[in-house]
User: Fold this.
Amino acid sequence: MPQRQHQQKHTPIRLAPRQQPTTNASSGSTALPMESSTPEATRRKRARTADFVARNTSAMICYLWFGRSSISPTQARLQFVPTRAFVDFIQNLLTTTQVSQSVIVLSLHYIYKLKTENPDIDAMAGSEMRLAVAALMLANKFLDE
Assistant:
């Protein structure tokens, strides 16, 4: 069965400029300017946070799942650059389920243990989605009880 080829488009990460502290002349104290707390600003902040968590979680899952001592160039690419479809899948999964950070960390531990105790498992392109769902389900179940 032929393997599907995944192409990844890189989107550069843009960091927000650092805000300069302001000095209160009467008290001499310094503080960062307050960010507006409009509903739109809150929504944008949540979207950035969700994207950040999804990108890093998917990168860690791919690193653990596709990594081994001798890998093909295709698997090496998948190990270090998760596909946009996988990042979007993880973002949708995490925002829909609203799992805690503890669940995410424990699911990564489960994936690590699976690979270290079964090094002969061949990770196929696309299997990372099923693995992520199973690991998150197990971690959530464990931490809920």
